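Re: export button greyed out
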Amino acid sequence: MFRKILIANRGEIAVRLIRTCRALGVRAAVVYSEADRDALHLRLADEALPIGPAPPAESYLNADRILEAAKACGAEAVHPGYGFLSERAAFAAACEEAGLVFIGPSPETLRWAGDKIASREAAARAGVPVIPAAGEAGPEDGDALAREADRLGYPLLVKAAAGGGGRGMRRVEEAAGLEEGFRAARAEARMAFGDDRVYLEALLPSPRHVEVQILGDGRGAAIHLGDRECSLQRRHQKVIEESPAPGLPDDVRAGMREAALRLVRQVRYRGAGTVEFLLEGAGGFRFLEVNARLQVEHPVTEMVTGLDLAALQLRVAAGEGLPLAQEEVRFSGHAIEARLYAEDPARGFLPQIGRIDALHLPGGSGVRVDAGVAAGSEVGAEYDPLLAKIIAWGESRTTAADRLSGALAELQISGPRTNQAFLAAVAAHPAFRAGEISTGFLAENPGLREGRPPEEGLDDARLAAALAIHLDGGGGGGGAGEGEGARDAQGAGGPPGGADPWSRPGGWIPGGLE
Amino acid sequence: MSRVRFEGWEAEITPAGEGVHRIRIGGESREVRLLRREGGLIVFETEGRVVSAVVRVEVDSAAAGPRAAEGGRAEVIVAGRRAVFPLEDESGGGSSREGAGHGPLRAELPGTVIEVRVSEGDLVAAGDVLLVIEAMKMEHPLRAGAAGRVGRVRAEAGAQIRPGDVLLDLLPAEEQDSV
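Workaround output, generated via the alternate export path:
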C-alpha cells in the first residue's frame, strides 16, 4: 500500500477520500485553490498544497501544478476524485510519465470511455445491446443523414462524441430541424470540448437509468458490486440514487451485470468504474456509457455491500489485484442517496452562492452524510454547487426511504438556498415510495420544486416567519411610537447568507422548466 | 405590540416576558419562547413543542424603504419543507402590482453570456427566454418575468458577467423608451 497519496480534488469527495486514507494508514495530501483557503478538505488533510487561483483552469484543472504538488510532497499516487481531471487520459498519462500512480483506469481506457462513439463500438463488440444510432461518420451526405434519422424516428438526440453529463446534447423534434440541430450541436461540441464529432441517437421515451458498479484488475478480471438506480434526474443531473435498482426482474438485473462484466473484461479495465444503461419499460436494457471514475453516488453501493470503494481503488492501484472474489460480495438491504445542492429548485435550479451561517447535519442509525462544507464555509460560484450527500440505509427500501425523509427533515442549513425541501418532497412522494420512477419523473411533477409542507406544517412556518421578521425589527408598529419598526425586513445584517445576490427590482424567472 | 403583514394574513406580536412572545394570527394566539437564533436559523418552543426553522426574508426592491412591508417574501424551511409567504405591499397591490417583472435584468452569478435571444424593441411574453448564461458549468436560460418590451440590451454573447451587472432592461409594453 502507498505511504502517501495526493488527492487532486475538493469538496465532499476530497473529504471522503481523506477518510479512507486515514483508515488505511495512508497519508493524505490535498491541493487547494485561493478560493479554498478555508475549505473543509484542507482542514482535514495531513498536508495541503496551494495550486493557484480560483478558476478551475488555473488550479484543479491545472495538471502541471498538480503534478508539481505531488512531487513536492513526495506522494506516490494521485487520486483524481470525480470531475476535474478524473477522466482525462492525458493527465493519467502525465502521472505515469512522472513516476506517479494514477488511481484510476489506464489512459487507453479513459480515451475510449470518453468517446461515446468508441465506447458504443466497444460495447457492441462485447455483445452488449446499444441504443440505435446513426451518422457517426459525420454529415457529409445530408440526404443519407436524413434517411438515417427517419429510420431512427423523431424526436431524436444529436449527441457530441466527447460529451457527457448532459452536455453537448440537442433534441430534434422533427425532420425540418435535423440540419439545424446537427449544425448547432457541432458548433457547441467544438466550443465545449474542442471536438466537433456528433451523431444521432434514438430518444427513448422516459427510460430508467440503471448502472452497474464494477471493479477490474487491469488484467482482464473484474467483479460487479451490484446496480444503482439513477433515474431521478433534472436537466440530466442526478438528484436521488439508490441501490439496488427497485423492482427489476431478476433476469434483467443479472443480464445487465453480465453485460457490464463482458465489456470491462474485454477492455481489461483497471479500478472502479460504472457501466450505465437505459431501460425501456420492464424490457430490455441498452448501453449508455462508461464512467471511468468513482461516481458521486458510490456510497449507496458501499452501504449495501459494506465495502469501501475508495479503499478498493487504492488496493488495485497499489498492485494488490482484486481484493475479493465475486462470491465474497454480499448484498444487504437498500440504500438511497440525496444530493444536497446550493441551488433554487423553484427558479430553474439556479446555483446559489453565499456563506453557510448555520449548519446541522443529520445522523442516526443507517444514516451517513458526506459533506464538503461546515458552518462558516463560503459557497462560491467557481465550483460545483454540491454541498453534501445524505445517504440512508435500511433492511428494506421503505425503511431506507423513511430514514432519508427523517434525515432531510432534521437537516438545518442557513445561508445559500438549497434543494433541501425539493429532496424532502421527492422522498415523501407516493410514486417515489412505490418505486415508480423514470428519468421523466421530476419534470412530470414540477410541484415538487416548491417543496411545500403538508398543511399542518404551515402554522409552525407562519409563526417562524412572523417571529423572525419581528426580531429583526421588521414588524411595523401598531401606531405611534413604534420603537422597533424602523429597520428593513432583512435586519441590520442583511439576509441570512450575507452575500445574497437577490436584490433585484424586476421579477424574472431564471431557468427553464423543461 | 408590533405587526407583521403578509398577503392575506398578519401577525400581531406582543412581548410576554424574557424571550417570550405572544403571537396572534387569524384570531388564534400562541405563546412562543425563543430558544436560539443563529444566522437564519430560529428555534422556538410553542405549546410544548420545539420548532426549528430557517427563515430567509427578501424584499422586492433594492430601494425598499425602512419598513418590512414593501413587497417581498419570507421563505421558511421547517421539518425540511419550504413555505413561502409574500409580504404585503403597503404601497398597494402586492406582488401583482403593475410593473412587477419589469426593470433592469441583473446577473445573479458570475458567468458568461452564451446567447442573447432578443433585441431592443422586441415584444416578449412572460416566460420567454431573453438570454442564456453559463454559470457554474451549466447553461441557464433567463426568462422574462412579465410580458413587456425589451429596452436597451447591454449584454453580448461571450461577455463575462458579474453579479449585479445589468444585462438588459424590460419595460412595460406600452411605455415609451426614454433612453
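DSSP finds no helices and 16 strands in chain B. The button fix ships in the next patch.
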